[in-house]
């Protein structure tokens, strides 16, 4: 189940991609299938081991094109172990709502993203998330849980402050919002409640079969109750005028010294 829409977020074979806070690896796997050089990074060692196993299985099964590479590694989102301008693409999906220093994470992502590179950020949407918080404290008051609810303008503003240029947004996973409302209403750890079990079965069927009826329904409902908010942005190139001005200033230094 992908949150990033790759029809709006172009990815070319050979692109170097960082999936930051990769979790179970869903976006990293898709990028690998598309021929990218993927680095899946997360602080959870157990999940990284599983992602590495799946990368190996995909390579053995021939699921990725020749030349594509994939690496899974532990790391800290606030201190990424990569040089500046290392990646063509950065994805951070359903992570920033967990991190106190979200501006620090954005700064690190911008640092390792090449000028002209693209970034996709996804977070829980404000409206559906507010319902979850209202229904259940246990939904968010857990170690490593959600510590904030983003409004769209707030997230886009922070992305601009970090030096990014947003170019598109959308909502995703409308059919998942009622599931989480049910989970919160019946208890987030109570998977045996009949409404929760029945709706979960529907979601699994939808993910596996992708029937036209539910695809149409979700697309129609996404603007209203989509569970995730997705924002796409680019890292601008340094303005040529600024670069030229810097060179001119440098060349003028000896003349100023002579005067």
UniProtKB/TrEMBL annotation:
EC number: 2.1.1.-
SUPFAM superfamilies documented for this protein: S-adenosyl-L-methionine-dependent methyltransferases
Enzyme class: transferase
Domain Methyltransferase type: 18-120
GO BP annotations, alphabetical order: methylation
Annotated region described as Disordered, given as residue ranges: 238-259
Sorted UniProt keywords: Methyltransferase, Transferase
Transmembrane feature ranges: none
Classification via InterPro entries: Methyltransf_11, SAM-dependent_MTases_sf
Molecular function terms, GO-annotated: methyltransferase activity
Keyword Transmembrane: no
The keyword Ribosomal protein belongs to this UniProt entry's keyword annotation: no
Ranges of compositional bias, category Basic and acidic residues: 249-259
Record protein name field: Class I SAM-dependent methyltransferase
């Amino acid at each position: 189940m992908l949150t990033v829409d790759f029809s709006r977020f172009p990815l070319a074979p050979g692109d170097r991609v960082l999936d930051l806070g990769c979790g179970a690896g869903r976006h990293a796997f898709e990028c690998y299938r598309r021929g990218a050089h993927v680095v899946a990074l997360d602080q959870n060692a157990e999940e990284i081991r599983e992602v590495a196993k799946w990368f190996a299985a995909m390579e053995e099964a021939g699921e990725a094109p020749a030349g594509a590479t994939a690496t899974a590694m532990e790391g800290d989102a606030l201190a990424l172990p990569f040089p500046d301008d290392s990646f063509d693409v950065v994805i951070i999906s359903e992570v920033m709502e967990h991190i106190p220093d979200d501006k620090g994470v954005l700064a690190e992502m911008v640092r390792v993203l090449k000028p002209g590179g693209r970034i996709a950020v996804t977070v829980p949407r404000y409206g559906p998330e507010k319902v979850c918080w209202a229904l259940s404290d246990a939904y968010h008051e857990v170690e490593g849980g959600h510590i904030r609810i983003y409004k769209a303008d707030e997230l886009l503003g922070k992305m601009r402050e970090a030096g990014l240029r947003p170019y598109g947004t959308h909502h995703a996973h409308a059919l998942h919002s009622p599931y989480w409302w049910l989970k919160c209403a019946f208890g987030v750890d109570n998977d045996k409640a009949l409404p929760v079990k029945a709706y979960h079965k529907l979601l699994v069927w939808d993910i596996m079969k992708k029937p036209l009826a539910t695809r149409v329904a979700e697309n129609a409902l996404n603007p209203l109750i989509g569970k995730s908010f997705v924002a796409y942005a680019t890292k601008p190139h340094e303005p040529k005028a600024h670069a030229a001005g810097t060179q001119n200033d440098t060349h003028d230094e000896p003349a100023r010294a002579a005067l």
